[in-house]
Specification:
It is a single chain. This protein is elongated. The chain contains 9 helices and 18 strands. The protein is of the alpha+beta class. The strands form 7 sheets. A 4-stranded mixed beta sheet has the order 1-2-4-3. Strands 6-7-15-10 form a 4-stranded antiparallel beta sheet, with no helix packed on it. The N terminus is likely disordered. 26% of the residues lie in helices and 19% in strands. The protein has 4 domains: 33 residues, no CATH class; 150 residues, Rossmann fold, CATH 3.40.50.150; 138 residues, no CATH class; 48 residues, no CATH class.
Length: 409
């Protein structure tokens, strides 16, 4: 109770030092703030004063410069808050990529910068760390181009807090995150046999930002369509996760008009597209028959084909589960309607699929994954040409820097 009274007293003393204009400005900011999200202690007036304060301008050091200007690269040494304020003045909306490796707030003492931003006088003990980052993130945001991105590293312990903070400082910019493997051989550090060999990289981008993606492999485009003069791949799923009861308009026999072969529909996973001969309903795409006529359906060329000449033959095949199906799920069952339809017809046991033409690809690359495979595990990837990022660990990077430094010296 005494500590609370002392804190309230300090807060009152703080407000008494503000002018009327400052109090009005502060109240307007408080009224405009969202009520849901991360909350920490911050001095709005002091924060504004820090942003607007005079700062030391950057000066070029000729002794460290590589020849004469202009230079393609710029290294700024100094306080990052002052540097960001200078950059915002000189390079606003001109930076495409920002990577930040901030203090993780772990309390490490033997580190190149202060990594202990917990103030025992704060009612919320992480407020100093959050405010430290918030001021810098809002400055960094103003540097980004319309297609720019900011990437920020963080550990497990403080990821949740940092993500909420970045949502506050960079509203509407969240893209996702990567999990980065930092080292090899770390022991259990969590008390639950969970190693801390990793860290997270949070990605926040402007509206025009897109990752380049990984190059797609065209090895699967091995079928040539003479009429369309294009390569295509098979395997596009023609079914969807609805039953015949849920989607009666997409439960029907599929017909290959070229070979006059019929394919029963899976009662538990019906066709993706409706038939124009089925129940009338509003559809968002074309009918199955239109896809077939335009050559977008691939019917298997090598498959088992059966003809049941009598209903007795069909019933015997159904009882023996010697009918088309998927795993242990037959597509023809005793309780299904219109079984007489299948008598006397050629019935295919293969699986029709949707054709994907190479020329109709929307992009030659595929999106990045949020998971990164370290170099030493690349041989374990099932598809080396697939959607995987292979990269070195922090230890490999440190070794490379040492080697490069030794060569230069």
């Amino acid at each position: 109770m005494h500590r609370l009274q002392r804190g309230l007293g300090q807060l009152a003393d703080h407000y008494e030092t503000l002018s009327q204009a400052q109090l009005i400005s502060l109240l307007r900011k408080k009224d405009a703030e969202k009520k849901l999200g991360l909350v920490w202690e911050r001095d709005e007036i002091e924060a504004d004063a820090a942003i607007d304060a005079n700062f030391v301008a950057c000066a070029v050091d000729p002794a460290l410069s590589d020849g004469t200007g202009p230079w393609r690269n710029l290294v700024i040494e100094g306080d990052n808050f002052d540097a960001l304020r200078w950059l915002r003045m000189a390079y606003a909306h001109r930076v495409k990529c920002i990577y930040i490796d901030p203090p993780y707030n772990t309390g490490e003492k033997d580190w190149v910068y202060n990594d202990h931003y917990i103030d025992k006088n704060d009612r919320y003990r992480h407020s100093t760390w959050l405010e430290f980052l918030y001021r810098r993130l809002t400055l960094a945001r103003d540097l980004l181009t319309n297609d720019g991105v900011i990437l920020v590293s963080i550990n497990d312990e403080n990821r949740a807090k940092l993500e909420l903070l970045m949502d506050e400082a960079l509203p509407g910019m969240r893209i996702g995150s990567f999990t980065w493997r930092t080292r090899v051989g770390g022991m259990d550090a969590k008390g639950a046999f969970l190693s801390d060999n990793h860290e997270h990289i949070l990605a926040y981008g402007m509206p025009g930002f897109r990752f380049g993606g990984t190059e797609k492999t065209f090895d699967l485009y091995k079928h040539w369509d003479e009429e369309k003069r294009d390569w295509y791949r098979t395997g596009g799923d023609l079914t969807k996760a609805h039953t015949m009861v849920q989607r009666a308009n997409t439960y029907y026999p599929l017909h290959d008009p070229t070979e006059d072969i019929w394919y029963p529909c899976n009662p538990d996973s019906v066709w993706r597209y409706a038939s124009k001969f089925g129940p009338k309903a509003k559809i968002k795409t074309r009918y199955m028959e239109e896809f077939i006529a335009d050559g977008y359906i691939h019917f298997p060329s090598e498959q088992r084909v059966e003809v049941w000449n009598t209903r007795a033959e069909l019933d015997a095949a159904i009882e023996a589960k010697d009918v088309p199906g998927s795993g242990n799920s037959p597509f023809l069952r005793p309780d299904l309607p219109d079984l007489d339809f299948w008598v006397g017809k050629k019935v295919g046991f293969g699986t029709p699929s949707l054709k994907r033409y190479k020329r109709e690809l929307k992009t030659p690359t595929q999106p990045l994954s949020s998971w990164i495979t370290p170099n030493f595990e690349k041989d374990t990837i099932p598809d080396p040409d697939g959607n995987d990022i292979i990269a070195g660990t922090n230890i490999e990077a440190a070794k490379a820097i040492k080697v490069r430094t030794a060569v230069q010296n």
